[in-house]
Automatic annotation (TrEMBL):
This is Thymidylate kinase. Keywords: ATP-binding, Kinase, Nucleotide-binding, Transferase. Transmembrane segments: none annotated. NCBIfam families: PRK07933.1 (NF005923). SUPFAM superfamilies: P-loop containing nucleoside triphosphate hydrolases. Residues 7-186 form the Thymidylate kinase-like domain. Belongs to the thymidylate kinase family. One of its GO terms (biological process) is dTDP biosynthetic process. PANTHER family: THYMIDYLATE KINASE (PTHR10344), UMP-CMP KINASE 2, MITOCHONDRIAL (PTHR10344:SF4). Coiled coil: none annotated. It comes from Nakamurella multipartita (strain ATCC 700099 / DSM 44233 / CIP 104796 / JCM 9543 / NBRC 105858 / Y-104).
Length: 213
């Protein structure tokens, strides 16, 4: 069975770019690689519903913390069989976001690392234990600064009207608390061991042996 590796970080942190770089590196080494990205907008009704909520199209649902979290979790539950099949068929399955994103954003909405919460444990119980979503083997946190990630997200939104900032992305305070929660969860080895990558001066990431080996 292949390894399940997850890349986590803020919107605009470089997850998609690193996903492509890692996949190309492993394929050049002769390994088979599959990739998935969450939420699966346009592919799963739960993801589409939470997207509607984040753009204010479902009334006050976006005011809830647990409601959107359940929809994000149901998106992954619906993909659990595909995840298992891809792990069986490939050496590496590389995911752009996964369960930890739910724990990080929900905890940040509850106040962040300065306010103790059992939300990460609740997410784990829901997604891993109850829904049977496969646990990751390793997670990579892109520790891009909140300022750089936010600027990238805004630039992307300016260039593509289909990628306008949603309610989470437009909230700078939430993004800062989420970045801090990601750090906390990585320090705690939430769900798996972690590697934290800090960007080089040009905003790109070097690939240490611990990640690509």
């Amino acid at each position: 069975m292949g390894r399940l590796i997850v890349i986590e970080g803020l919107d605009g942190s470089g997850k998609r770019t690193l996903t492509q770089a890692l996949a190309a590196r492993w394929q050049a080494d002769g390994r088979t690689v599959a990739t998935l990205a969450f939420p699966r907008y346009g592919l799963d009704v739960h993801a589409d519903l939470v997207q509607d909520a984040l753009y204010g199209r479902l009334g006050d649902l976006s005011d809830s913390i647990y409601g959107p979290a359940v929809l994000f979790a149901l998106d992954r539950r619906a993909a659990a069989g595909q995840i298992r099949d891809l792990r069986q068929a490939h050496d590496v399955l590389l995911l752009d976001r996964y369960v930890t994103s739910n724990a990080a954003y929900g905890s940040a909405r509850l106040g962040g690392p300065d306010r103790p919460t059992d939300f990460p444990a609740w997410v784990r119980a829901l997604e891993i234990d109850r829904f049977g979503v496969p646990a990751p083997d390793h997670q990579i946190l892109l520790a891009t600064s909140v300022e750089l990630a936010g600027q990238r997200a805004r630039n992307r939104a300016d260039q593509d009207q289909d990628r306008a900032l949603d309610r989470f992305e437009a909230d700078d305070g939430l993004q800062r608390r989420t970045a801090a929660m990601y750090r906390r969860l990585a320090e705690q080895d939430y769900l798996s061991p972690w590697t934290v990558l800090t960007p080089d001066s040009d905003g790109s990431f070097s690939l240490p042996a611990a990640v690509v080996g």
